[in-house]
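step: validate -> pass
step: tokenize input -> pass
step: predict -> running
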Amino acid sequence: MMIVASSQQEELQAIINILESEGLKVYTQRETHRTLIGMVGSIKPRLADLLHQMKGVENVIANSFVN
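step: predict -> pass
step: emit ->
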């Protein structure tokens, strides 16, 4: 899964905290007006739904999930 998020530090940290609490390894690539977040691990479908609702998340690109 890949996330396109705001570059606001508080919003970005909240997103990373959720991902890490799910046991995922998080990688970020900061750009001028946004941050790309990639992760490695078992991603559950409910996580994408939660992320879509979070402040600062512009897009969630999901390709496969673990049930």
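step: describe -> Residues 2-61 form a domain with the Alpha-Beta Plaits fold (CATH 3.30.70.1140).
step: cleanup -> pass
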